[in-house]
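Is this the right way to post structure tokens for a design question? Let me know if I should format differently. Anyway, here goes:
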């Protein structure tokens, strides 16, 4: 292992007074001779030195570490401690320090080397006295200079300024008193918010005018002259005078409006709720009652309603009177001719007058026509979606026509808990017809059908009574009217059954109160109902 066999070192710590302290280099020159364990000089070349400073000769932790590579010639090296890693100011060289050295990453050599002073550097001990003057330790602090003056300096007060000294407390007091302005400007303050002040206590303050703070009370009368106003900002004369022109007539300062954009305004005095409306016949703007001129024809292309009317009084939003009270037309396949949404009645139509003696013989309360969409839609959260009333002999309460499409509906009603479509007639007359179907069929659709095909099978033929098959539809009641007709099955099934098994055998429908359900049974109670046999079922609820 390489180690330092012979040491020849010179440690120079330059110290000076506080006035030139920043110029003193914080570095130490360190020299030595490197040899191996046998005393042979190590080969020439670059070698790595690890240099550490300690406060004690052995143990402890280094307060400074520096690693640098130095050239070695015939064993001799020279290192400047602090040239790679600066020696911090916290190492004040005011006590004993010890240097530890490691060569090429080896173990630190022992013993450590104590740093000592050069003979003339002992004079630097006087710097401790200078430090006490600067730092004020020990109660011996002093003033080196006053405003660049050295030696005895005399303070003299001028004007209303007095200077007093207190020998006991070693204080000098400077005060000013007397006439106006003797104390000088101490700061700038603003009490009404009209100005802004930055750095009010100085030494340099910035004062600005707050926006909108200059009003009539801030400007002295007659202080603003015409030369200070840009041309065109105000009329050349205030208040303006002379004849008016353009859309105004008369003279300033009180002219009248005679035109709007050079079009005449009527001299008629407007009444309450009237507005100026252009009358092309008179070529003038005239006071007119605000109404919608009829016939009113307008088109729109908007996702929002073209017209929305809300009556917050709970009365009628739109009322139509005439041959067609309210008429709606939609050209969109998914559109709605007339759409009403209400907490009570979505769409209400009345044809003729209410009473026993109608004035006309025919009419339609609500009429909707569509090619493929919906003629009339009424939505209500509590009342009737669509209500049509006709007191006429040949009238219709609700009349819906669908011209095309096998699934289109002239009148379509849907209700969560009430009636999808409810038909009735007014009064106590027994001659009225609640529901009239002209040249058409009644078709029942949906998941819970009131008319459907019942197929007998293992799931509904009673095992110990195979001549009985029971129905299964939601919410069946004993008061329901159940109508059943036998539907012959396919020809192949008929062949397997040996023909119509019901030839000469009657069948019927009964309510089984034990299990609360409707059942279809064969009257002979001997012939079994085959699997796959079908029955047409119609349920009418009272």
């Amino acid at each position: 292992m390489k180690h330092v066999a012979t040491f020849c070192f010179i440690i120079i710590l330059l110290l000076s007074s506080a006035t030139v302290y920043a110029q003193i280099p914080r570095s130490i020159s360190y020299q030595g001779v490197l040899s191996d364990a046998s005393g042979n000089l190590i080969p020439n070349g670059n070698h790595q030195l690890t240099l550490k400073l300690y406060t004690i000769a052995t143990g402890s932790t280094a307060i400074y570490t520096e690693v640098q590579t130095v050239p070695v010639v015939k064993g001799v090296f020279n290192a400047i401690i602090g040239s790679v890693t600066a020696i911090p100011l916290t190492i004040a060289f005011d006590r004993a320090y010890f240097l530890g050295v490691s060569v090429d990453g080896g173990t630190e050599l022992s013993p450590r080397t104590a740093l000592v002073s050069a003979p003339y550097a002992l004079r630097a001990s006087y710097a401790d006295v200078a430090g006490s003057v600067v730092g004020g330790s020990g109660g011996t602090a002093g003033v080196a200079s006053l405003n660049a003056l050295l030696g005895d300096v005399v303070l003299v007060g001028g004007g209303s300024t007095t200077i007093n000294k207190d020998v006991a407390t070693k204080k000098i007091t400077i005060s000013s008193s007397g006439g106006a302005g003797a104390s000088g400007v101490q700061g700038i303050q603003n009490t009404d918010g009209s100005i802004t002040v930055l750095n009010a206590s100085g030494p340099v303050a910035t004062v600005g005018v707050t926006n909108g703070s200059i009003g009539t009370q801030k400007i002295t009368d007659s202080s603003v002259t015409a030369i200070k106003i840009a041309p065109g900002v105000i009329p050349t004369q205030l208040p303006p005078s002379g004849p008016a022109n353009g859309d105004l007539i008369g003279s300033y300062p009180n002219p009248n409006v005679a035109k709007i954009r050079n079009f005449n305004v009527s001299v008629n005095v407007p009444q309450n709720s009237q507005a100026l409306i252009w009358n092309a016949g008179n070529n003038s703007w005239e006071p007119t009652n605000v109404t919608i001129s009829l016939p009113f024809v307008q088109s729109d292309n908007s996702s929002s309603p073209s017209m929305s009317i809300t009556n917050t009084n709970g009365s009628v939003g739109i009322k139509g009177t005439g041959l067609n009270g309210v008429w709606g037309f939609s050209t969109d396949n998914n559109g709605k001719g007339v759409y009403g949404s209400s907490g009570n009645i979505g769409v209400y139509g009345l044809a003729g007058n209410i009473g026993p003696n109608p004035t006309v013989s025919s009419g339609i309360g609500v009429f909707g026509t569509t090619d493929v969409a919906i003629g009339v839609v009424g939505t209500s959260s509590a009342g009737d979606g669509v209500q049509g009333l006709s007191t006429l002999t040949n009238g219709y309460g609700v009349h819906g026509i669908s011209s095309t499409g096998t699934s289109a509906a002239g009148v379509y009603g849907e209700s969560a808990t009430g009636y999808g479509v409810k038909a009735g007639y007014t009064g106590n007359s027994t001659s009225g017809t609640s529901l009239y179907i002209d040249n058409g069929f009644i078709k029942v659709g949906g998941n819970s059908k009131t008319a459907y095909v019942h197929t007998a099978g293992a799931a509904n033929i009673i095992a110990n009574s195979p001549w009985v098959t029971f129905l299964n539809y939601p919410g069946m009641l004993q008061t329901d009217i159940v109508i059943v007709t036998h539907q012959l099955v396919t020809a192949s099934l008929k062949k397997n059954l040996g023909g119509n098994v019901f030839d000469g055998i009657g069948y019927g429908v009964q309510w089984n109160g034990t299990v609360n359900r409707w059942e279809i049974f064969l009257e002979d109670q001997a012939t079994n109902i085959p699997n796959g046999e079908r029955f047409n079922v119609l349920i009418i609820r009272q």
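Format looks fine. Someone answered above. Worth noting: The chain has a mean pLDDT of 78. Residues 45 and 72 are 5 Å apart (CA to CA).
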